[in-house]
Design goal:
about 40% helix; binds pyridoxal-5'-phosphate; binds zinc ion; Thr_synthase-like; lyase; disordered N terminus; about 15% strand; alpha/beta; pyridoxal phosphate; TrpB-like_PALP_sf
Length: about 425
Amino acid sequence: MSESSCTVYELKCPECKKGFGNVPLSACPDCLAPLEVQYDLDSVRGRFTKESVAAGPANIWRYKELLPIPEGHQPDLPVGFTPLVKADRLGKRIGATNLYVKNDAVCFPTLSFKDRVVAVALANAQHFGFDVVGCSSTGNLANSVAAQSTRLGLRACILVPSDLEPAKILNTQVYGAKLVRIEGNYDHVNRLCTLIADEYKWGFVNVNLRPYYAEGSKTVGYEIAEQLGWRLPDNIVCPMAGGSLIRKIKKAFAELVALGIVEDKPVKFFGAQATGCSPISHSVKNGWDDIEPQRPNTIARSLAIGNPADGPAASKMIQSTGGYAEDVSDVEIVSGIQELAETEGIFTETAGGVTTAVTAKLYADGRIGKDELTVSVITGNGLKTTDPLVGKFAEERAVKPRLAEFDAFLRESDASLITGVAEEEVELVGGTK
Ligand SMILES: *Cc1c(COP(=O)(O)O)cnc(C)c1O
Ligand SMILES: [Zn+2]
């Protein structure tokens, strides 16, 4: 294992402030606090400017000066830089006039924001000389580690809870990765991975490489600021599993302010969870600075972490910004999925259903003002979690390939679609809308 020299970042303990250089290590051996990558922002200042970013590639590597990428590593996968879309139709439904959706349902290459964190983690895994990489995953991380590791020529062993959605299992195995289903929930899987990482000397992206992995999430924040014309929004609504992404968006904004790239302003952070696994939102609602672990029971499997590593820090951060956290039932999650699809044409997975339903609730409860600039962060793709939608739509009879048959079918099925036919026929369907 080589230690990188002359880099502008290193691991630091947020408690005792001890520096560790750059090594595969997740927590301070003395305080047990999760380690953070800290940058020497003064030395980054001249190299990270609006102009240098604009001249970069249309992917996360345009921000590489603020990512822990080892000297000499040449990233080539065009990860990230997903659309930020003004969501006026969704806004109209939920009473918002200045709402945006950050659409990581279409993140490259595996259709979730996890592609960002994996790209950064694997660059470090390669640098540290690991032959085998792995992860404990609620699904999306498994897909991304499997896809990206094979492209880098690394072998992968991936551990998941045994009851994961079939699409997420298949979307891991197709890349040739070794997939191991563990009898238990994510928290059992994660504990086992900690032991395996030590025993086998593997690089686990969210265990011993976690500080590097987590930095990849900052790119969601950089992109939002850049896509708003180098401005910060008033509010961020973000789903939470381990509680890392929401914290890193905040860190990204703070770095941009420190570098003088965006104007400082208060941004409120709102966390979103499923009620069936809501340790962080529960903590925020009670004003705690710690979390009480839960046993997950929700269709939002990608968010089902009962004992989140960054939970206490996320709860404190949200409260310090004047934000809030909400949680929604499985029924509300499915409605959220449909609402975003029907209004904005974006098909998100259960986690995005959580975020959309929570966003609606925050407006309805007046926690977010109608005209405030708000970004709702959609993190994964609906094609991976179709199960909750099965049976939602009527299965209608097949129609013979003749115009008259089609016409008859439409009149019985949805006559409101008939708008452009001859006068007398319009009268026939009058009043059906
Ligand atoms: C992992 C995941 C999250 C939450 O990320 P954390 O950083 O663990 O809070 C949100 N959405 C989706 C789709 C995920 O896969
Ligand atoms: Zn320490």
